[in-house]
Amino acid sequence: MSDVVVAHISDVHFGGRADLAQLAVLERFLSAFGPQIIVVSGDLTQRARHGEFQAALRFVTDLGRLAPVHLVPGNHDVQWWRTPFGILGRRVLYQKWRRYFGADPTPVLELDDVVVAGMCSAHGLALGSMTPNLNDMTVKGHLPASEVARVRALFAAVPAHKIRLAVLHHNVLPGVVSRRWGLARPRAAQALLLTLGADVVLCGHDHTEGAGQIDGRLAVSTAGTHSVRTRGGLPSAFNLLRVDRQRIQIEHYCYARDEQTFRRGDTVILPRTRGAAGIVGA
Ligand SMILES: [Fe+2]
Ligand SMILES: [Fe+2]
Fold first, then answer.
1. Is residue 226 within 8 Å of residue 11, measured between CB atoms?
2. Averaged over 161-174, what is the pLDDT?
């Protein structure tokens, strides 16, 4: 089995904050890698407006000419004000998202060597996403056990050799600069994620790139942002994942504005541990 190459980007935020010049460079840059899959881990829009979704759809359609695109909604992509605490049902949250990106906000993409499963962490104004900090309202997410159970069953049913990627919007490791978690009750969420049978969890939301592991055994790729809202004055970045039988290589590519290109930054190499966890690896 040769490397599976996955481009992981996040938090484009169409609607005034997206760096359009950078996105044009990104599209050209990605075409050179020939990724098998492009994952976009949410926050495509700023305020879930039609014009923002239309720009996002054009962008995703362009990416789709390079490779199949898998995407999930972020907290900025849901219309939380239309159904606070779910009083009018949860479908309303994702109404616009569905109009532009299809009926299922947590899609599954299966290719010969890899399966990508979305999980919803963006639930708007919801009890499960609340923390004692009122500033977190509608910003933090939560990971329902039912989402994990659904994807665990899905992963258990696909052939053992396939690389399993689980995608959600909110960061599941603390931000490198912010030190903030994306999810309410993050330790409980991490414990659930460890039961998934995933090879890698892909997330965003923190606007700073990162790579690491949960409990030393589950790889995590956190993509940065292509909006102008980076943290600490750091450049925008996306991740390129190369996964083979033994390892997961996560390369950060940082935007060099003056040169109108992306430069390779840090690389993190992690072992594939799913086999060691009792599930037969590739
Ligand atoms: Fe964001
Ligand atoms: Fe977000």
1. yes
2. 97
Can you read off the two tokens belonging to residue 226? 């292509």
> For residue 43, how far is its CA from the centre of ligand 1 (angstroms)?
5
Instruction: Please give the model's pTM, rounded to 2 decimal places.
Output: 0.95
Would you list the domain boundaries of the chain?
A: 4-271
Q: 149: CA distance to ligand 2 center in Å?
A: 23
Asked whether the beta carbons of 59 and 14 are under 8 A apart, the reply is: yes
* pLDDT of residue 277 exceeding 80: no
Q: Which of 184, 183, 185, 178 has the alpha carbon at shortest distance from 207?
A: 178
The identity of residue 27, as a single letter, is: E
Neighbours of ion ligand 1 (CB under 5 A): 11, 43
pLDDT in tens, 125-140: 999 999 989 888 899 9
Q: What is the 3-state secondary structure (H, E, C) of 29-86?
A: HHHHHCCCEEEECCCCECCCCHHHHHHHHHHHHHHCCCCCEEECCCHHHCCHHHCHHH
Q: Regarding the domain delimited by 4-271, which CATH topology (the fold level of the hierarchy) does it fall under? A: Purple Acid Phosphatase; chain A, domain 2 (3.60.21)
Q: How far is the CA of 160 from the centre of ligand 1 (A)?
A: 34
